[in-house]
Design brief:
By secondary structure, this protein is an all-alpha fold. The chain has a single domain, classed as MFS general substrate transporter like domains (Growth Hormone, Chain: A), CATH 1.20.1250. The termini are far apart. α4 packs parallel to α6, α12 runs parallel beside α17 and α14 packs antiparallel against α18. The protein is about 80% helix and about 0% strand. Its main location: membrane. It is a multi-pass membrane protein. It comes from Brevibacillus brevis. Pfam families: MFS_1_like. Keywords: Cell membrane, Membrane, Transmembrane, Transmembrane helix, Transport.
């Protein structure tokens, strides 16, 4: 943050800025403790690749239903902060119950329950942060980068803890992080504009969103992009060990990977102003596809670590700009619903497909083949981004043209 910006956020305003930043830090610390190392827990209870794929796919399936529901509740009653408080608390507590189960059936059922509450966390926190950033003329990436910092620290620290004390430590880290996020959320302002007070039925809202070609194309792109990104968080631990790494090395890798996202998220605003939002998104997708194809060639663990910054170029840029694209291409009265639909398709359907097929691919072929599949899926996602950037829908619709009453 620049000197002028830091001066602007001294005092009460500064406290709110750091509360939003800390909210992201601890939410993604929880995710960073859970996702990269959950396969170590699955290995400890002797699950197959197909079983791991099925469990990993259940969260996106639940999100497809739950995220629009949470979005509708937030848009209809304007209680985003209350819903986020509730879901953070329940998600953290449910995470602890994983330490008491060791069979596939119970893990599967517990994961469904966890996914129901956890599915609200990202779209609602993004909605709160986007509103805060807009009101205070900030770049969303300046806030979201703290999530990357939290994820990176958690993966590294939890990797060391898991190697020393076993997989159960990741669930304690997850729960404590979400409780900490809840405490900082109490200090986060909930910005409600006049336009966002106007609510519509879910059916009308979905009908309006489905009339927006740029939004539909972006959903398809994110289906492919986020599917591979999120599935990588599950399968990288096994992949890294297959090419010669250790569990602690997995934590180090994620520290470097997720750590590289923060500076690129910080730079995202500059590149968006310089080259445009669509160009940044397209570039991120291209780098992501190249990364997965390279991983499928079985590079050395040293090479994977040395070229850690590829994650910043791909994931960092995409995460920092995807929510901004949704905000700028959907009606303000449907912001939470649009974000929920976006995450349901990308982090929902896309992740479900990638995890299901990845589990089957691991059992039938190898972990390396999983990354060839990720590269192919991401390459498909580049096509709709090209249509957004160069096709007939390259111009965004002006805000005054929206009509959510139709």
């Amino acid at each position: 943050m620049s000197g002028s910006l830091s001066g602007k956020y001294l005092g009460g305003a500064g406290s709110r800025y750091w509360s939003v930043s800390a909210l992201y830090l601890f939410i993604y610390y929880g995710f960073g403790a859970f996702s990269p190392l959950i396969t170590q827990y699955y290995k400890s209870i002797h699950l197959s690749g197909t079983q791991i794929g099925a469990i990993s796919a259940v969260a996106p399936v639940v999100a497809i239903v739950a995220q629009p529901m949470w979005g509708l509740i937030c848009d209809r009653f304007q209680i985003r902060k209350a819903v986020l408080l509730f879901t953070l608390l329940l998600s953290g507590l449910i995470g602890l119950f994983f330490t008491t189960v060791s069979t596939y059936a119970f893990v599967f059922l517990l994961y469904i329950l966890l996914s129901f509450f956890q599915s609200a966390v990202v779209p609602i926190s993004d909605s709160l942060a986007l509103g805060y950033a807009k009101k205070n003329q900030l770049q969303f990436g300046d806030l979201r980068l703290w999530g990357a910092v939290g994820f990176a620290l958690a993966a590294f620290v939890t990797g060391l803890l898991v190697e020393r004390w076993g997989p159960a430590t990741l669930f304690y880290s997850y729960c404590l992080a979400f409780i900490a996020a809840l405490l900082f959320l109490l200090r986060v302002p909930e910005e409600v504009t006049e336009s966002s007070r106007f609510t519509v039925s879910m059916l009308k809202g979905m009908k309006q969103l489905l009339r927006i070609p740029r939004f539909l194309l972006f959903l398809l792109a994110s289906f492919c992009m986020f599917g591979a990104i999120n599935a990588n968080n599950i399968w990288f631990s096994l992949y890294y060990q297959e090419i010669g790494g250790t569990v602690a090395g997995v934590g180090l890798a994620f520290l470097l990977f997720a750590g590289s996202e923060a500076p690129f998220m910080k730079l995202a605003g500059y590149f968006v102003r310089r080259f445009g939002l669509e160009t940044v998104l397209l570039s991120a997708a291209v780098f992501s596809a190249l990364r997965w194809f390279w991983y499928s060639s079985a590079p050395s663990t040293l090479a994977v670590l040395i070229l850690f910054f590829i994650q910043g170029l791909s994931v960092g840029f995409y995460l920092a700009t995807a929510a901004q694209f949704v905000r700028e291409n959907t009606p303000s009265s449907l912001q939470v619903t649009a974000l929920a639909v976006f995450f349901s398709v990308g982090s929902g359907l896309g992740t479900m497909l990638c995890n299901l097929l990845a589990g089957w691919i691991k059992d039938e072929f190898s972990t390396l083949a999983i990354y060839l599949f990720f590269g192919m899926v991401t390459a498909v996602g580049i096509i709709p981004l090209c249509l957004i950037r160069f096709g007939r829908w390259k111009q965004a619709k002006h805000a005054e043209e929206w009509d959510v009453t139709r």
